[in-house]
Specification:
Structural class: alpha/beta
Order of helices and strands: EEEHEHEEEEHEHEHHEEEHHH
CATH class: Alpha Beta
Distance between the termini: 30 Å
Helix content: 25-40%
CATH topology: UDP-N-acetylmuramoyl-L-alanine:D-glutamate ligase
CATH superfamily: Ribokinase
Number of helices: 9
CATH architecture: 3-Layer(aba) Sandwich
Radius of gyration: 18 Å
Strand order of the largest sheet: 5-4-1-8-9-10-11-12-13
Strand content: 15-25%
Number of domains: 1
């Protein structure tokens, strides 16, 4: 039985592994996209995960599907489309391991997913639906995503929104903010970075997380702050979790690994997220922060999800 459904982008990340004398990178292709990374993280820890998405009927699309199958993700909801090419993202990494993106997506397959291509019955048995901001950038994927979210709300399925803001994909900041706010209004759980909080409200992570809790009635907020750790808060408690010391190589997908790891722990508790105690939030946060930190020690997102025993050993 499917426990988690995710809808959104499946892409190939081209990550630099070295740079020549003229500054040109040697790049390696990695399976990526927040949707795939998140689902793979859930599946790594035994959560039965399913994806709505679209790739091109091309070599990269087939590689993506194969990688997700190998990660134990149900790929039957992924469509291979002959008319569009699998979306590509070129990642550049600075001296701290942080990254920026350039996209080949005009249009990409991920943005071409249509509402009538969704078999919404898969949400019926699910405990949670995950979506992000990227599938809201363009039609027809925007309407497909909204249809899935509306259906999940009608079935009282938990909804997790992760903004995952990528400036190059938007025509304007104003448009991005409008859709980000819509996402907040739909979600029971929001996973958001300190950079995204600063973008939408110009505040620090703690203040933005509290705003989500009080003004948007979010049941659980998970605010990640890079090397500074994360804040988890609901109406009963607020906790801060520090990151373990690691040598960062590539932060691509770390936020998705955090989200998937946290969802695994949240579902284990089998209780509404707004009722989780401080002790439970701390345990959830420690597992997620540790898993995300370990993932930054290797390149790529989907392939970097650590085994549970590795996370527990570091904890």
């Amino acid at each position: 039985m499917i426990e988690v459904v995710a809808i959104g982008e499946l892409i190939i990340d081209f990550a630099p592994v070295s740079v020549d004398a003229d500054g040109y990178p040697t790049i390696a292709a990695k399976a990526g996209g927040a949707t795939g990374n998140f689902a793979a993280a859930c599946a790594k820890y035994g959560v039965k995960s399913y994806i709505y998405g679209k790739v091109g009927d091309d070599a990269f699309g087939k590689l993506l599907i194969n990688s997700l199958k190998n990660a134990a993700v149900d790929t039957s909801g992924i469509i291979e489309d002959k008319t569009v090419f699998t979306t590509l993202a070129f990642v550049t990494i600075d001296e701290t391991g942080d990254r920026s993106f350039s996209f080949s997506r005009k249009p990409g397959a991920d943005a071409s997913l249509q509402a009538d291509e969704l078999n919404l019955s898969h949400i019926d048995s699910a405990k949670l639906l995950h979506f992000g901001l990227i599938p809201l950038t363009n039609e027809p994927c925007r309407s497909a995503t909204k249809k899935a979210v509306e259906y999940a709300k009608s079935t009282e399925t938990l909804i997790l929104f992760d903004p995952n803001y990528r400036p190059p994909l938007w025509n304007s900041e104003k448009e991005a903010k409008k859709h980000m706010l819509w996402g907040f209004e739909q979600a029971d759980i929001v996973k958001i970075s300190d950079d995204e909080i600063d973008f939408i409200w110009g505040t620090k992570a703690e203040e933005g997380a509290l705003k989500l809790l009080e003004e948007y009635k979010t049941k659980l907020v998970m605010a990640t702050c890079g090397a500074k750790g994360a804040y988890l808060l609901n109406k009963t408690a607020t906790v801060h979790i520090s990151c373990p010391p690691v040598k960062v190589v590539d932060t691509t997908g770390a936020g998705d690994v955090f989200a998937g790891s946290a969802v695994y722990q949240i579902l284990k508790h089998q209780k509404p997220p707004e009722t989780l105690t401080a002790e439970e939030l701390m345990q959830i946060g420690r597992f997620a922060v540790t898993a995300a930190s370990i993932s930054t020690q290797t390149h790529g997102g989907l392939q970097s999800v650590p085994a549970e025993v590795e996370v527990l050993n570091m904890m």
